[in-house]
Amino acid sequence: MTVGVSMALQLGKRVVACASTGNTSASLAVYAAKAGIPAVVLLPAGKVALGKVAQALIHGAKAISVRGNFDQALEMVQELCATRDLYLLNSINPYRLEGQKTIGFEVIDQLGNVPDRIVLPVGNAGNISAIHKGLREWQDLGFIAHLPMMTGIQAEGSRPVVDAIEKGLPAVINEPHPETVATAIRIGAPVNAEKALAAIRTTGGTAAAVTDGEILAMQRMLAAKEGIGVEPASAASVAGVKKLAEQGVIDRAETVVCVVTGHLLKDPETVIRQCSPPIEIDADIVSLLSALGL
Fold it and tell me: Is the Cβ–Cβ distance between 90 and 124 less than 8 Å?
C-alpha cells in the first residue's frame, strides 16, 4: 500500500479510495494519513471485523458502510474513481502488485533459497498473483533457477478459484453470495482471478478449500502450539497445508512457506466467541486457589 499511495502522490492525485473486507481499508487509511491526503473506504455492512474498522476510523478515513457484499462495494468504488477524481487502490491497481510482490523476495532472502511451495489465503487474489510475478521476474533475470508451486487456499463458502482449478475451467465462475468466518477472504469475484489461475497452473501448484471449522481449529492451534496469533483468513493457509498433506498432495519432505498476513487482534470478536471468558473471583488467596484447583 505504501507503493500505491506514493504513486498516487507522484501522479498528483488528491484523494485515494478502495473497497475492502477490512485489511486494505486499514492499510490505506494509515498511509493516506501519513501522506496527508484523504481516504475513502467502502466496507460491506456488518461483514468487517471490528479491529479493522477501528484502524480505518482512527486514521481518519471516510468510511462508508455498504448494504451489500465486498464485490458490490468494489463495483461502486470503481465507478466512483472512473467518474470522479479519486485514485483507486484496490489490488486491481498495478502499483499495489508491485509492492505486494516483495513478499516473495523476503521469503527467499530469509530462507536463503527458493521453497518448494508458497501457500497463501486467496480473497481478491492479489498476493498470490503478485508473488508469482515478482519471482518470475527474478527467474528471468537468473537470480533463481525455479519457481515455487503457488498454492491458494479459500474458504468453502467462498471458493471460485478452487472450483476453477478443480474443474479445469479457463476462468472462475463468480460466487454471488460468499460466506465464511474468514472475513478477509469473503470475496466471490476476485479481480486478480485470471492472474491467480495462471500462477497456480504454470508453477504446478494447486488450490484447496477449507471449512470454517478447520480454519478456526487451526487458528487455535497456531496460538496454542506456536505462539502465533492470526486472524481466521491467515489461519486458512496453514489449515490448507494440513488438509493437502493429509490427502497426499503435499509431500512432507517439501519446504513449504505459509503466508499469514493478518494479526489476531484484527478480528477480536471471533477470538472471544471461541474462548471461555476469564474466571472471576473474589480478591483473596482462597478464591484464587479454588479457581486453580489447588
Answer: yes
The helix or strand, by DSSP H or E, that contains position 209, with its residue range, turns out to be strand 206-210
pTM of this structure: 0.92
Please name which of 201, 243, 183, 166 lies closest in space to residue 26, comparing C-alpha atoms: 183
- Can you give the pLDDT of all 294 residues of the chain as single tens digits? 999 999 999 999 999 999 999 999 999 999 999 999 999 999 999 999 999 999 999 999 999 999 999 999 999 999 999 999 999 999 999 999 999 999 999 999 999 999 999 999 999 999 999 999 999 999 999 999 999 999 999 999 999 999 999 999 999 999 999 999 999 999 999 999 999 999 999 999 999 999 999 999 999 999 999 999 999 999 999 999 999 999 999 999 999 999 998 999 999 999 999 999 999 999 999 999 999 999
Sheet holding 39-44, edge to edge: 62-66, 39-44, 16-19, 87-88
CA–CA gap between residue 52 and residue 249 (Å, rounded): 34
Structural contact between residues 199 and 120, judged by C-beta atoms closer than 8 angstroms: no
**117 and 256 Cβ atoms separated by less than 8 Å:** yes
How many Cα neighbours within 13 Å face the side chain of 9? 13
CA–CA distance from 142 to each of 112, 113, 129, 139, 285 (Å)?
A: 16, 14, 20, 5, 66
149-155 and 62-66 as β-strands: parallel, antiparallel, unpaired? unpaired
Q: Which helix (H) or strand (E) holds 276?
A: none
Q: How far apart are CA 104 and CA 134, in angstroms?
A: 7
Using DSSP bridges, classify how beta strands 206-210 and 39-44 pair: parallel, antiparallel or unpaired. unpaired
All domains of the chain, ordered by start, with CATH?
A: 2-90 (3.40.50.1100), 97-273 (3.40.50.1100)
